[in-house]
Structures are given as structure tokens and as C-alpha cells.
Amino acid sequence: MAKKAKKQSGGTPATVALTEAGVPFTVHAYEHDPSHPSYGEEAAEAMGVSPERVFKTLVADVDGALVVAVVPVAGSLDLKALATAVGGKRAAMADPAAAERTTGYVRGGISPLGQRKRLRTVLDSSASGHDTICVSAGRRGMEVELSPADLAKLTEAVSAPVGRT
User: I want to staple 71 with a disulfide (CB 3.0 to 4.6 A). Which of 80, 105, 119, 163 is the partner?
Assistant: First the structure.
């Protein structure tokens, strides 16, 4: 299941980070349709994977600090639960330009892995119910499948119920 990835040969910072960590993962690439209304739902459909196993990476502002939330594409982010999970009071979705600048990824391709500046990460607790989950590989039309435990370890994520269905 492990793939070798090099930046110069089409890899992304996320796949490079996974390779360097020696974590088993699978890359799933698909043709991105810019007119699709949801990046995450598009990924689930294109890969033929249940939306409960495909997770989106969202960047929020919690009390003035950017925080990453990784939640199933089948639902939405509970901002109040996210703030609570990181010991904050208020959370709001981050400015997209700030999220892109801080992570080094473009909207719709933000990965919880290999970010330019590592942000505190919260992984929705539903992830632990799956052997593997899919998250953005750092590019629209590219996902990586890995175990939720490996994702949590590499991102130093806390697990909390931050997704809403």
C-alpha cells in the first residue's frame, strides 16, 4: 500500500511527509470538475468511496489562532465543538486567503499533512470507526487513504466530536 512520492515527480508536501514518515498510504487521483459544488462530495463520488470515509480539511479561527478541523464530507463542522476541543471560546471559519497562505495549499486542496506552518489539528472522532479514511493529498483531484491513527499521530491531532451530520 505504501507509495513513494517525490515533490519533483508529482508528489505534494502531504505525500512527501507520508513517505518520509514511513506511513502506508494509497494515492487516489481523479479528474477534478471545477463546476462541482463540493470538493469533498466530488472526491467521494469519483473514488466510489462512502462520504463517511472521506474527510475534508477545514481551517477555522479559534480565538485568533488558526486551527485545522478534519471532518467527514457527509456533514459539516460544529464550530462551537471545535472551539471547546482546543480550549477556546469562539470559532469562525478562517479567511480563505489566510488559510491558503498559512497551509501552503489552495482551497479545495488543503491537506492536514505537510502544511507550510503546522496548525493545531482536531480529527472528528468518527474517524476511529474506519480502518482507513481519505483526506486531501494537497491538490484538487488527489486524495490519500491512510489509517486514522496514522493521520492523528502525524498531525498530533486531538480526537473530538466536531463533525455534524
Answer: 163
Q: What is the Cα–Cα distance from 10 to 7, expressed in whole angstroms?
A: 6
| 8 Å CB contact between 144 and 137 | yes
**Residues 97-137 pLDDT 10s:** 999 999 999 998 999 999 999 999 999 999 999 999 999 99
Residue 58 pairs with which residues in a beta bridge? 69
Beta strands in 13-75 (DSSP E): 26-29, 55-62, 65-72
φ/ψ of 91, rounded to 5, equals: -135, 145
Q: How many whole angstroms separate alpha carbon 26 and alpha carbon 36?
A: 24
Cell 463546476 found at? 35
pLDDT digits (tens, 9 = 90+) for 32-49: 888 888 888 888 888 999
**Beta-bridge mates of residue 158:** 122
User: Do 131 and 24 contact (CB within 8 A), yes or no?
Assistant: no
